[in-house]
Amino acid sequence: MSAGWVPTDPEFYSDRLADLRSLLATVQELDLWPPWDTVGRLVELVGQAATATMLPPDPDPAALTSARTGWRMLDQRADSATADLVRVPFHVSTAVWEGGSGDSFRSSVTELSGRVRSVRTACDSVEGTLEGLTGDMTGVRDAHRAGREKILDNLEISWSDLLPWEAYDLLTRRRGLVVDGVRETLGAYEDAAELVLAADRAIRRALDAVELPTRLPTAGGISTVDLLNGWDDDRGLLSGAALARYEDRFAELSPGQQRELREALASARSDAERAAILAGVGGGLAGAALTRYLQHLRTMDRRDIERMDPLTSPSDDVTQPDQTTCGSSSLVMARMLNDPAYAMWMRTGYDPETGETDPRSFEERFDDESFRVKTLTNDATSPEGEPQQPWPSFLGTPPWGAASEMNAHAGVPGSEYGNDVVDPSDPGRTFDAVQRASEDGHAVPLYIGDEWSPRHVVLVTGTDGDSLEVYDPASGSTTTISRDEFEGNDLGTSGWDQAWTAVVPR
């Protein structure tokens, strides 16, 4: 969801800060004696500083003001839409529409008005964040301008008949001014980077509370109200970005299958069944497999369909089968979240890809899959079919094997995953990467341990404000990890406190 706010590219600051710090050190260490041999080098460095500080810190306060206007307009539209929706049930009363269908319609509209109201709350929060950032960036740009003027004042250095020590004193003063100017501009960029990061986090927290999807498909024979009733940002088969993938996949189906899909949606017995249908198409099902998937959904009751989301399972259903399968159990969980056909097979034993039924229980399939996936991730051939570094089974799942399994089977279809190693000096960077990935609908395997090594793997399944929601295969339950806990090496998850590596989309 966006209305004029795009966070500044982090590389804008990281590259500029690195260049200026290096330049500052060079200027400070420059030997000024004899002065006539070093004046040219100092002028050269001043020129480099002028070039490095040419662009003022982003974002421009004027752009932020424009963004605030956009969010204010969105707030006003959401306010108007909420007011209209609140009035609908009174106009479509029992005198107009009696019976269960009328009651269901009024209930759905009331639910929709509450969801739209969440947009207003987010808009108010975002607008306030941008207002504060506008004032802060005005001060930052003033500081940058003052520092840059000190640099530009020293682009030319000349003297007439100064004695050597007088020339040396002149260069010393000039260098001091240049150092001050570089420090001030560097400080301005550093302040801007911190301000933008804080604003970005605040905006993501605000948007995380919005109870509407980022995209509403227009194709597929289903009403907007039904779409919204079946969607949830954090839970269920249609959570996160699954809905956004549906329309693209629908367009790839044959006309006959599109008709079959519309009929299945029209005859669906519940919002949960519609959500499972949409998620199956979004997950890539087509052809005979899609037909079998739709037919088997008709044999399942609502509770069984809802339990295709593994996060609704009892804790003893989804615990790792031994001490070495925390990683592979997390990958099985990730695949169930991202692949509804696989989730159907895991939950019921019926495989829509083959049409065959597995007689084992869910618990047996979960355990066996955990062992099977670990064999794949630890073999000399990766789950993607490429050569990889083999890994001893007793040491669990290696990060590169986990990334390969996410690419091949367990991740969001069409995504490419890789390892993000936590920088001990800046763990917040990885936290942000995990949080962004989770908000975009990705499950994220996370390696945690002590200060010496990674010892356990959990799966980030969602966000709650500024905290991560985490499935822990050791207990089979879901817990939360806050930003402060992540950055302070205080996770407290299964006895492990430090984050080591996250498997995130590239």
Automatic annotation (TrEMBL):
Span list, region Disordered: 304-329, 471-494
Ranges of Polar residues composition bias in the record: 312-329
Superkingdom classification of source: Bacteria
Protein name: Peptidase C39-like domain-containing protein
Lineage: Bacteria, Bacillati, Actinomycetota, Actinomycetes, Propionibacteriales
